[in-house]
Amino acid sequence: xxxxxxxxxxxxxxxxxxxxxxxxxxxxxxxxxxxxxxxxxxxxxxxxxxxxxxxxxxxxxxxxxxxxxxxxxxxxxxxxxxxxxxxxxxxxxxxxxxxxxxxxxxxxxxxxxxxxxxxxxxxxxxxxxxxxxxxxxxxxxxxxxxxxxxxxxxxxxx
Length: 158
Hints:
Blueprint (H helix, E strand, L loop, with lengths): L9 H4 L7 H20 L11 H14 L2 H20 L10 H28 L8 H9 L16
């Protein structure tokens, strides 16, 4: 990979202190579990409206983490919790055909929307890249490089 003149390497332009994936998964699942508890308080006669708190929680978790790997696990947990405790009772997982496909689409779309929001927010907040002036590049190219090894002629005699 050739370096562009006048640009610092990416590792020196941006310092990334990302949260580990396991922490993002744990926090995301905690947010979704809280949303499922809130959604369970909504009467069963509300139907699909019981999924709204879970969808909002996924948008919030996706925006906060902006981590696709973690959100894949969190969205899977959200789907299983929604089907097991909001649609059915007592954690029983069943397949209901098109209703479950719609729930899956809502959960994946809200997780994806949260990821897009988080990535956009982080992109707008990152500092601009450090651009080295061309005069500095030309000056550095004109100067001879110092040797990195030890020079026997310059070593003091003992």
